[in-house]
Amino acid sequence: MLRLRSLVPMCCLWWAAGVAPCAQATEPPPIVISSDAEFTQKLLPYWQQLPPTIDAVAVGPHEVSRPEWADKFVDASTGSRLLESDHHVWYRFKLRNPESTPVELVVFNYSQIYSLYILQDQNRLAEIGYGTPLLQGEGLIFPAFRLMAPPGDSTVYLGIHSRRHPVNLNFHLRSPKSFVIHHTNYLVLLSALLIASVAVLLYTGLLFFGIRSRLYVYYLVSALGLLVLELCITGALAFFGKTAQADAGNLWIYAAAACFAGAALFMLEYFEFTGSTHPAMRRMTRFVTGVCVLSAASFGLIWRIALPILGISVVGLTVLCIVGIAIRIKTKRRRALLFVVAFAPPLLSAMLLIWSYANSDDSQFFNSLFCFGVFFNTYVFSFLISDHIQDMTRTQKVLEASLKSVIPPAQLKRLASHTVTIDTKPAIRHVTIMFVDIVGYSLSSRKQLPMESFYSLKDILHQITKIIHEFGGIIDKSLGDGCLCFFGYDMAGGESEGHELLALNCALEMQRRIVARINDRSAEPSRDIYPLRIGVNTASVCIGNMGDESRFDFTMTGEGVVLASRFETACEPFKVMVGKSTFEALSTQARAPIKFYQRLVPVKHTAHLVEAYEINPFEVNETALERARAHYWNAIQVEKRDERIYDLQSLVVGSQFGFMTVVNFSINGFCLLSDKFLGKGVEIQLELRSVADERIHQYSPILVQVAWGGPSKDDKYLLGTRIVGLSENHRQVIFTILKACIENMAAPARVG
Known about the structure:
Layout: H1 11-17, E1 31-32, E2 40-42, E3 48-49, H2 67-70, E4 74-75, E5 82-83, E6 89-97, E7 103-109, E8 115-120, E9 123-129, E10 144-149, E11 152-161, E12 167-168, E13 171-174, H3 176-210, H4 214-234, H5 236-239, H6 243-248, H7 251-270, H8 279-297, H9 303-328, H10 333-359, H11 364-403, H12 409-416, E14 427-438, H13 441-445, H14 450-470, E15 474-478, E16 482-487, H15 499-520, E17 532-545, E18 554-557, H16 559-570, E19 575-579, H17 580-585, H18 588-591, E20 596-602, E21 609-615, H19 622-636, E22 644-645, E23 651-653, E24 660-666, E25 670-674, E26 683-686, E27 702-711, E28 717-723, H20 728-744
């Protein structure tokens, strides 16, 4: 029935004990048998052994019963109950039948044996073992043989070959009726426990297909290993006729390694020992697990070395599991207790089984105890998995709720199903960053109640988020009346190609949908019409979790993020501005349908202007854009109050960017026609010293700042500027002087 498969901690004992010589003692008495149907007798007290000091390899079934070997046998009744050999080791016991007729008996062992010769006196009765019929071909768990004891005394020889596997010598002698009853009872108990264990295992294993996780893989490896180990130990494989295949493939050793390796890896995942929080624990467990698996794999080649290494690694994994429980007992008490309850029964029953095979004549009780331990393990494991599912469901709901507005649905589904995990370590990634700003929200919110302002902002942000997710973007954070997002990054830590075009298409689509939304709602007295400014830039940035264990704050930092923000600030409402790096990353085919306007953008803390490209999503649909602009100005109720001088013949002024033509001007600024497309915020020094009225000389050059801009005819650009650094009185003086000069001009003037 039992081949000591999962009892690897006993390997050192097996290694040292082997077939230790037994002390010479008085010859054991013969076994007195009877025809009683209840007759049963253990053979160990009556054992004699041919010592290993004799060249036992040369002793075969035809030689062992010869007279020259008769006085070589020694008392083995107090010897080791474990046998591990690579040849036949001979034992004998004597029978005494006081009756006048032969008595039929059954001799059997609880442990499967590779090869067993059975001789009675000088007659070879049979050789049984793996692949041979037992008890006339009846389906049995125990290796058994029918024996006929003649009247008087007789001697039975047993030649046992364990094929290097540790075998427990737990031979019994029973009457046929007693054996059948005993075997049937054990078979019923074993079948019930095996069926129950398999049912629980299948039920729990099916959960893997619904909720995929490495935790389930490790559980299935450990539980299946334990179940196979039970089949090997109890002898159930013999009932199915698979003992030969199991022995040839060293199935028991692989099952033992799988059981402990799976349990250790399960412990790491169950207690959430990650590489960032407990790197030493994780590395040590993985190392010992690797040693365990390698020693099991090499058992067939170097079994004398592999077996003790396997035993040491199993002990090491057990210690690591205990350490893991001790670490988590305070922070995860419920999980730690469930883990102990699940693993303690099979572990303790296995230890008792080891003890019984070394110290007890009756291992059947401990075999049954081990079966109960395996069933209890698989049963309680369902509670661990159920508890994990509940925690995972709660975590999944919290994760989905907190990340739904941040991560695209496809990535969120993968994260929630535990097929990938979020890579929170800071890392350099090449992505495309997008800043989106809602223009005019501050002005509009002044005329709204706080609750109305909140919901109007929430509505527009929801629309923006939806579009970003459609194109696979990840939202870094909401910025009050805008948001920051990026493209080309997988939350599991990977990157993707073509994110520059994705970001650009997302920005253009966003502007078009927002304009369509504004125009579609124009019939209503709208209070939530907001244009957008969008800045896009491609760069290598640092991405990671800025929070701690209690707060998730996934963000990015770097110069590329700052530039994207500057491009958004310099962009015109309803338009998109992309950086040079994004523009150059686009293929010629991608650029073809889009018209890019080069624009120079100011950047804080730098003296030079940065090159960028502005895009008008409504290049072929100016009507939609003009309607949206009109609705926006009407919604915020802004009126033009400044007196503005138009119809200038050709007033040209000088600047550090070359000559510019004044299209019109007011008390607050100038509208200029320029060869260069300057971004918002760029400061221009206008030279007015050649104006005929000398009163204006004291104000020249006049410092103006670009407030808006756009393309004009003849590849030139209109720049709306406002005067900075002068009081209202000074601006009024300048306006009056210039107005008088324009009115007195009889011919085109050139100023500067």
